[in-house]
Structure formats: C-alpha cells, structure tokens
Specification:
- This protein has two domains: 138 residues, Glycogen Phosphorylase B (Rossmann fold, 3-Layer(aba) Sandwich), CATH 3.40.50.2000; 184 residues, Rossmann fold (3-Layer(aba) Sandwich), CATH 3.40.50.2000.
- The protein contains 13 helices and twelve strands.
- It is an alpha/beta fold.
Length: 354
C-alpha cells in the first residue's frame, strides 16, 4: 500500500554522493515531479555533485561539505533549522548521510530495507523501502513506488546551459567523437593505459576523433598523460579541465563514451549518449550504464568466481571483487568486439572526421 494518498507539500532527498548515483536518483526525482508538480523538492548533496544537480529544473539544492567535518553538519542543520518536510528520502546507506539526517525533520523518513542498508541506516528511518529491481536506478525507483508514484519507468530530462553547449562546440566540430574517460575515483576500477591507447588507435583507424575526459584528480591526470605517451591518436586531453556542466555538454555532443564504472558513464545516460562500460569489480547488471548494459565488457563473473569460488547468484547483491588487478582481465580484443557492436548497432560511424 502506498505511503501517501495525495501529493505532499514538501519532500527532501538525501543523496550526498557519488556523481553516478546522483544521476541515477534524478530519474526518481523527475518521476515525482511528473506526478506531483507542485511538491516542493529539496535535495541535500555533496559539494561536487551539486554542480550537476543544479541543472535539474525546479528543485532546491542544499550543499553538505563533508570536508568540513563537524562544521559541515552544523552548517547543514542550521540551513534547514525550522523546516519540517512531509517526507525524507534517505537514499544513501552511509553513516555520514545518516548523521546528516539527524538535522532533517520529516514526518516520514524512508530508507533501505535491511538487505541493502548498511552502517546502521535502518536506525535512522521509520519506513523501509523494499528492493524493486537489480539495478541501482530501479532500487531508487522503489522509493517512488513506496510513496505512491505510478509511472516508474526511468527517464531523464536535463537541460544544458547554452553557454556550456557553446563551449562544447569548440571541441565537437569534427565528428564522429569518441570520449574516453580512463579514470575512476577509485584506481582499482581503471583499465590499463596500454589498453586505452590501443582502443584509441583502433577508433582512429575507423575514422573517429578521440578525446580524453575526467576529473582533476592527480591519479586521473597521470593516467591520461600516460595514455597520450602511448598513442598519437588522442586529439585532445581534457582530463581535469572542464566543469561538470561543460563535461555534460561535451558528452551530449559525442557519439560514444568509453569508461569504467565512474560518473561520466552515468552522465551519458542523462543525455542519451551510448556508453561502452568496462567492469570487473561491480556487477554491471547492478551498476552498469542503464540503457547500454548489453554493451559492457565485463569480467566480473570470472573475477568473482576466481576470488570466491561462487557465482554472483550465490552471493549478496552488492558483492564487490576485491582483487586490485581484476580490470587487467579485460583484453583489448574484448573491448574492440564490443566497440564494433555498439558502433554498428547505433550507426555511429556514418560521418567521417576527414
């Protein structure tokens, strides 16, 4: 039975990080907006993630800066003091998010069920949301189902500022454009520099313009520089030189994104750009690019079996492969095979860059 029989006046979403999961959660927020257009929605999120979420129409974004320690919590609670929401969607099973929730007053506080909650999250909520699907997006949509949202098919509509679209045109006038995001926030998720370089060479031979994208993190920049040393077929190395909204505009203008399990993988989903994902540590059926899970290169099952002697079906749904070298199981032959499939199926190589 749905929790609410009518639209609430106010609703607070608590999802602090990461960029990919915030992308997933946007689908839920926009489903709520479609059914309850007059409900006021406030989203509490991290400092970096706020750059992207500020593009979501008709929501209030409140920033929680985890780097401020206790001061970050006090500032958040002061910002929300005197406010009481009808519903809090506590969508992050992490202790820092649960502590943040202590300063968010709401009649109903929805959180994950015991199977998915961790760090004692169930102690901070008064309603539990049952899983509705295997993918993170579908798990988030379960919050909508619990509320009484009837249209739960995930979709995204995210306007990109014209200034950022104009900025992107300087890099996208030559097509077809392949964006490789080689690095993730956790280095164990990264494929090899040699593999990315070989893919760039192959894509170039097929007529694609290849560019690198990513965050300003030192490890990601070093990986990008290593790739550029191994191939002459990187047109631009933009790792660390874009804002999130500029990056989104660039992804929207590209024909294809290749990346491991990282934010730009899911930003591409927001703007319907095809993604070839590279996976070893997490089950791509749970965390892969939502519309392109059929095109991932995944060694998750084989790495999991080698590490545990069990299959994914025999283990908890969020089981992660811990072997730090697992991504090295991915071969260039596997990536090229999926590259050929996705470029064929999406008709991506019809334009020439020459």
């Amino acid at each position: 039975m749905a929790l609410l029989g009518s639209a609430p006046a106010s609703l607070c979403v608590l999802r602090l990080s990461a960029i990919g999961d915030c992308c997933h959660a946007i689908a839920l927020v926009q489903a709520i907006q479609r059914q309850w257009p007059h409900t006021s929605i406030t989203w509490v999120t991290g400092k970096v993630e706020a750059q992207l979420l500020q593009l979501v129409p008709n929501i209030e974004v409140v920033v929680f800066d985890k780097n401020k320690g206790l001061g970050g919590y006090l500032r958040l609670w002061k910002t929300l003091a005197g406010r009481r929401f009808d519903v809090l969607l506590h969508m992050q099973a992490a202790l820092r998010a649960s502590i943040a929730s202590l300063g968010i007053k709401a009649i109903y506080k929805l959180g994950f069920d015991r199977e998915r909650a961790k760090d004692g999250q169930w102690l901070f909520t008064n309603r539990k949301v049952t899983a509705t699907g295997g993918h993170v997006v579908e798990g988030f949509m379960g919050f909508g189902q619990a509320l009484g949202i009837t249209e739960l098919k995930p979709s995204w509509t995210l306007p990109i500022p014209e200034t950022d679209r104009q900025w992107a045109t300087a890099y996208t006038h030559q097509q077809p454009l392949l964006l490789i995001c080689p690095g993730a926030s956790k280095a164990y998720k990264n494929w090899t520099a040699a593999g990315y370089a070989a893919l760039a060479d192959y894509a170039h031979s097929k007529g694609m313009v290849v560019m690198l994208i990513g965050s300003p993190a030192a490890a990601e920049q070093a990986l990008a520089e290593n790739i550029c040393q191994l191939t002459a077929n990187i047109r631009e190395n933009l790792v660390g030189s874009t804002t999130l909204s500029q990056l989104l505009a660039l992804i929207a203008a590209a024909q294809l994104v290749v990346a491991p399990d990282t934010g730009p993988t899911h930003m591409a989903t927001l703007v319907n750009t095809p993604v070839l994902g590279l996976y070893a540590h997490h089950n791509p059926n749970r965390t892969g690019p939502y519309f392109c899970r059929d095109y991932v290169v995944s060694v998750y099952e084989e790495a999991l079996l080698a590490e545990t002697g069990k299959t994914a079906n025999q283990l908890p749904w969020r089981t992660r492969v811990k072997d730090p070298t697992a991504m090295q199981r991915i071969s260039i032959e596997q990536v090229i095979a999926q590259f050929d499939r996705i470029t064929h199926d999406f008709n991506l190589l019809q334009e020439s860059s020459e």
